[in-house]
Amino acid sequence: MRIRAAVSATLASAGILLAGWQSGAHVAGTASAAGSTAGTTGIAGGSVSSGSAGSAGSAGSAGSAGSAGAAGSAAKAGGTFVGDVVQTRFGPVQVQITVSGGTISDVTALQLTDDGGRSVQISNYAAPLLRAEVLQAQSANVQTIGGATVTSDAYLTSLQAALDAAHL
Amino acid sequence: MNTTSRTALRPQPRQAPAAANPYAGQHRRRLLRADLLTVVAWASVAAAVALWLADGGASGFATAAGAFTAAGIVAGLAGMDLVLLMLLLAARLPVIDATVGHDRALQFHRKLGKPSLYLLLAHGVLLAIGYGLAEGLNPVSEAVSLWVLVPDMWLAFVSLALFVAVVVTSLAAVRRRFPYEFWYGVHLLTYAAVLTSLPHQFSVGGLFAAGTWQRWYWLAACIATGAALLHYRVLEPLVATFRHGLRVSRVVAAGHCAVSIEMTGRHVDELAGSGGRFFIWRFLTPGQWWHPHPFSLSAEPVQMDADGGGRLRITVRNLGRGSASLARLRTGTRVAVEGPYGVFSTAARSRRHVVMVGAGIGITPIRALLERTPFAPGDATVILRGHDSSGLYLADEILDLCQRRGAALFHLTGRRPPGVDTWQPEAEARAGYRLASYAPRLADADVYVCGPAGWARNVLDDARRAGVREEQLHYERFDW
């Protein structure tokens, strides 16, 4: 009878684990599709943001938000530009840039991953670093922050949208 | 009537009914329940991990930091699941109690203690390493930063310290050094440990984030466990205590160092039929109310009026300090009662034949079982063991019951032979008697054993050597 218990327990556990694993793979697949949603400005790389949000804490994927403003023509005036809201599994991320004289003079995070205290901790640690990098590089083409991949990717994606809006 | 018509139809000699085992069905169902409980317990651990996998947790293993973090999360989830299982095993759930018995449930509870602590410790260490790697901090500074910066995390550290304290004081070697009350007091901290661990799970962990069904699953598991504890360990005992309103009516000497405590109360008929199952008694005097005593009834309750008002009795030996003061109980003392618990009763029967072996004060549940459990004349054997005849508690009543019900009775008195591991007195052991010498049908009988742990182990070994299978052995610990 002990054998019966052991066998059924093993089978049941294996089945449950398999089901969990399968639906986990499924979740990772759909997450990328449901990655970004519309922001304030209409443009923005839905495809770019989706790729980064889908990676869900895995591999570094530094340059995913590449493309660096470049081709931007006129509108070198000043002002503030708000990026898209990028949804992540830890909460929405949205940044705003202040442009003066054709350069980024400030980056402010309007929303940061805040789902759970651990996310807040990551956000608080990653946001100043990202801001400093962006101000130095004057683009979204910067390294993601280790341990804060999801936050970084979303941050840079939203930033890119804001840069596009500013035609930088 | 049914029987007569059948015998008329089939004129064979009626040996079939006599050979049939009326307990086969009950036994099969109990084994099935035990297996189901085992499966549920293992499946719950698997479910804890599966829920994490379903959240895409496995992708974390891509990097070193992610792998440490993932392993830490899994350890925490499995550890939490084991802690909930431990609480349920100690919650006196009727289904667990009726399937494996109270003491086996607590045995599993103890077995899970160390694994769950190791998992929780691994949870903390692995996450400190994993988060530390990701942020370029060493694990110690990461732990400090978690403590300082993340809300609710300091509670998690407190919780871990409490879990360590609870498990360490429960290690056999440590537990022996301290009085029961100390261990009990520290053990109550388990509730504090679980409660302080909850906030960080739901506020810090991304897995239990609001809106996920993982959050609902764990919330439900925690609430169900808490409700079970509250219901079966607090509410039911309170209700039973008020319903029966028991008071001590008489304390009389009952052999060597033992007293019988008689109580009167209401609805005692509801407490009847417990066989050798035990109740937990608390005598509500200023110095004793918090001290639980596990004793079985030493006689079936006697109902005195139509409303179920009546008398019941327990027989107690001066074992510890607590039991000693029971001899001085005043008449009229209120008694709180919970139970009955355990499967030292007809519910555990698997065979037609029954052998009951009791030593010292362990004889009292044997007497209750003998009075109650069904057997045909000639199918039961009772063996009583004591240092001398004054240690054969309730011997007169047991003799009377054996005569009335047709059970064979043996009195074994005298010292053990020095240096020999046997449950019998010197003369019988030297004569080469075995358990089977007293009960020839032993291999096809249920064997109920109650007495001191070392002695009982010898009886059980003797029975196993005679071919008695594990599921036929029924042994209740009385000395925890």
Describe it.
The complex is a heterodimer of chains A (168) and B (480). Chain A is of the alpha+beta class and 168 residues long. Chain A has a single domain (2-54, 64-166), classed as Sufe protein. Chain: A. Helices cover 47% and strands 15% of the residues of chain A. The longest helix of chain A is centred in the N-terminal third of the chain and has 32 residues, at 2-33. The longest helix of chain B has 34 residues, at 102-135. Mean pLDDT of chain B is 84; it is low at 1-18. In chain B, the strands form two sheets. In chain B, strands 1-2-5-4-3-6 form a six-stranded antiparallel barrel. Chain B has a five-stranded parallel sheet with strand order 9-8-7-10-11, sandwiched between helices. Chain B is elongated. Chain B has 17 helices and eleven strands. Classes of the chains: A alpha+beta (168), B alpha/beta (480).
List the SSEs and their pairings.
The complex is a heterodimer of chains A (168) and B (480).
Chain A: H1 2-33, H2 46-54, E1 79-82, E2 86-88, E3 91-100, E4 103-111, H3 117-137, H4 149-165
Antiparallel strand pairs in A: 1-3, 2-3, 3-4
Chain B: H1 2-9, H2 16-19, H3 24-54, H4 64-89, H5 94-100, H6 102-135, H7 139-149, H8 153-170, H9 172-175, H10 180-203, H11 213-244, E1 246-253, E2 258-265, E3 278-283, E4 293-303, E5 310-317, H12 321-326, E6 334-341, E7 353-359, H13 363-372, E8 380-386, H14 395-405, E9 407-413, H15 426-430, H16 435-438, E10 445-450, H17 453-465, E11 473-475
Parallel strand pairs in B: 7-8, 7-10, 8-9, 10-11
Antiparallel strand pairs in B: 1-2, 1-6, 2-5, 3-4, 3-6, 4-5
Helix pairs in contact in B: 3-4, 3-5, 4-6, 4-11, 5-6, 6-7, 6-8, 8-10
Structural key phrases:
heterodimer; A: 168 residues; alpha+beta; Sufe protein. Chain: A; four-stranded antiparallel sheet; B: alpha/beta; Elongation Factor Tu (Ef-tu), domain 3; Rossmann fold; five-stranded parallel sheet; disordered N terminus
